[in-house]
Amino acid sequence: DGGITQSPKYLFRKEGQNVTLSCEQNLNHDAMYWYRQDPGQGLRLIYYSQIVNDFQKGDIAEGYSVSREKKESFPLTVTSAQKNPTAFYLCASSVSGASGNTIYFGEGSWLTVV
Amino acid sequence: AQSVAQPEDQVNVAEGNPLTVKCTYSVSGNPYLFWYVQYPNRGLQFLLKYITGDNLVKGSYGFEAEFNKSQTSFHLKKPSALVSDSALYFCAVGSYGNLIFGKGTKLSVKP
Question: What percent of chain A has a predicted confidence (pLDDT) above 70?
């Protein structure tokens, strides 16, 4: 099946820990994205990458880091510097970074701080 | 700055009735407009988009949207609602290669 796979679906983090959310796509898309979803606030862009070995900060990048070493993979690390990390995280991809291209989403990952 | 607004937090309709979920936008230049649907605990599913051309755009699951440039609106419509249409709906505008989302509208369809 072609698509975007996020793992794990549920993740619990202790205070002061870094955690990494995985995102893999087999759609041969160049562009990949990470969004954060909080109730009543819609989706906000954390980071995006339009090509391998390149990425840009989105609106709420503080406390997060990413890498794009392979076309298929765009992992997101939530660091201990992120003050309020409990949220639903969505990975997405598109054929390219052009504004009219459709962006497709994975099934999301829940991160909870305990 | 590009933005979208969804003025209704929730829309309630009876099964079989027509539904409308409203969206207005503010962009410089030509807008690229999208609608997505989200079921509980799931990712977003693409419904339809407007890039250029006909103002009435048809999408998945019987949904359509009407682009109105003079009113800067892109309302989502369906002629006959189903209970299974109950979900969270997001309008978005394409901006520099990514999407800017509205806050979402919860659609509740009652039997």
Answer: 98
pLDDT digits (tens, 9 = 90+) for B11-55: 999 999 999 999 999 988 888 999 999 999 899 999 999 998 899
Tell me the mean pLDDT in the region A51-62: 95
d(CA B48, CA B27): 19
Supply the pLDDT for residue A3. Answer: 95
Q: A97 and B101: CB-CB below 8 Å?
A: no
Determine how many CB atoms are found less than 10 A away from the CB of residue A40: 7
A6 Cβ neighbours under 8 A, 6+ residues apart: A21, A22, A23, A89, A90, A91, A106, A107, A108, A109, B43
Residue A87, token pair as written in the block: 């949220």
- Number of A to B CB contacts under 8 A, please give it: 60
| pLDDT tens profile A8-50 | 999 998 888 999 999 999 999 999 999 999 987 789 999 999 9
Q: Tell me if A102 and B34 make a contact (CB, 8 A cut-off).
A: yes
φ/ψ of residue B85, rounded to 5: -80, -10
Q: DSSP letter for A73, please.
A: B
Interface residues from chain B to A (CB-CB < 8 Å): 9, 32, 34, 36, 41-46, 49, 51, 90, 94-99, 101-104
- Determine, for residues A98 and B97 on separate chains, whether the beta-carbon distance falls below 8 Å: yes
